[in-house]
TrEMBL record:
<dbReference type="InterPro" id="IPR017871">
    <property type="entry name" value="ABC_transporter-like_CS"/>
</dbReference>
<dbReference type="GO" id="GO:0005524">
    <property type="term" value="F:ATP binding"/>
</dbReference>
<dbReference type="Pfam" id="PF00005">
    <property type="entry name" value="ABC_tran"/>
</dbReference>
<keyword id="KW-0813">Transport</keyword>
<feature type="domain" description="ABC transporter">
    <location>
        <begin position="6"/>
        <end position="237"/>
    </location>
</feature>
<protein>
    <submittedName>
        <fullName>ABC transporter ATP-binding protein</fullName>
    </submittedName>
</protein>
<dbReference type="InterPro" id="IPR052156">
    <property type="entry name" value="BCAA_Transport_ATP-bd_LivF"/>
</dbReference>
<keyword id="KW-0029">Amino-acid transport</keyword>
<keyword id="KW-0472">Membrane</keyword>
<comment type="similarity">
    <text>Belongs to the ABC transporter superfamily.</text>
</comment>
<dbReference type="InterPro" id="IPR027417">
    <property type="entry name" value="P-loop_NTPase"/>
</dbReference>
<dbReference type="InterPro" id="IPR003439">
    <property type="entry name" value="ABC_transporter-like_ATP-bd"/>
</dbReference>
<keyword id="KW-1003">Cell membrane</keyword>
<keyword id="KW-0547">Nucleotide-binding</keyword>
<keyword id="KW-0067">ATP-binding</keyword>
<dbReference type="InterPro" id="IPR003593">
    <property type="entry name" value="AAA+_ATPase"/>
</dbReference>
Length: 237
């Protein structure tokens, strides 16, 4: 088993008694972006939440470095190097940006937390001027930067991003795409859910397409660009 890969195998999941994932398998490679595409309701968010331990699986395996992650609590999964940027650029709106970052690193020692905050501010230098601003007073793009920064604290090996650009202005989307590329180049494996398929396929080497709780395509981003009918049928399904 390759230690640079997060293995997800045969995930079965129900929500509200309804089957949502019907045996989903995928691999996320460290140091690369993997795109996860599919229409609303296909099960992408549920998959990411299940990998992060936020919702309970009926069955399936999630493994990294030969260790099972399935069945662990979210904070244990985080400690093992898998972090999530949930949908909707959520931040703690009453806390300052700096306190949002501190809260994300509450498991770190004070010294480690300082160096981690400095590291994420190197990635998003635009947050330096906002450290004392309340989370609730930020623009959507700034909130997404804080949300990604929170996930990056404690240097995860894998980062699962649920909707990078939803509702954000084109200039911000371009900036966030640049950062995702940089994060992957630094060695992190990024699973990217992104409504703009051209952005996702521009960043990703490998892509998966989901339809009604199943993976219906796994292959190179180039293949999906060359044959748009695969995506068209998934988005119309
Ligand atoms: N909290 C919930 N409780 C019960 N069912 C849910 C819940 N959230 C989502 N579902 C159902 O799970 C299925 C998959 O939804 P999910 O949000 O995972 O899809 P998605 O591909 O991420 O779509 P979207 O882009 O709309 O978030 C849908 O049928 C949805 O109705």
């Amino acid at each position: 088993m390759d230690t640079n890969t997060l293995y997800v195998a045969d995930l079965v999941l129900k929500r509200g008694g309804k089957p949502v994932l019907h045996g989903v398998s995928l691999n996320i490679q460290a140091g690369a972006v993997t795109a996860l595409l599919g229409a609303n309701g296909a099960g992408k968010s549920s998959l990411v939440l299940a990998i992060a331990g936020a919702i309970e699986l009926s069955s399936g395996d999630i493994k990294h470095k030969n260790q099972p992650l399935s069945g662990l609590r979210p904070e244990q999964i985080r400690k093992r190097g898998v972090a999530i940027v949930p949908e909707g650029h959520q931040v703690l709106s009453e806390l300052s940006v700096l306190d949002n970052l501190r809260a994300a690193g509450s498991a770190c020692s004070t010294r480690k937390l300082q160096s981690e905050i400095a590291r994420v501010l190197d990635i998003f230098p635009e947050l330096n001027a906002k450290l004392n601003t309340r989370g609730g007073d930020l623009s959507g793009g700034q909130k997404q930067m804080v949300s990604i920064s929170q996930a990056l604290i404690a240097a995860p090996q894998f980062l699962l991003i649920d909707e990078l650009s939803l509702g954000l202005a084109p200039a911000v989307v371009k900036r966030l795409a640049e950062v995702v590329r940089q994060i992957a180049e630094s060695g992190v494996g990024v699973l990217l859910i992104e409504q703009f398929t051209n952005i996702a396929l521009g960043l990703a080497q490998h892509a998966y397409v989901m339809e009604h709780g199943r993976i219906v395509f796994s292959g190179s981003s180039q293949q999906l660009r060359d044959d748009p009918s695969i995506l068209h049928s998934a988005y119309l399904a």
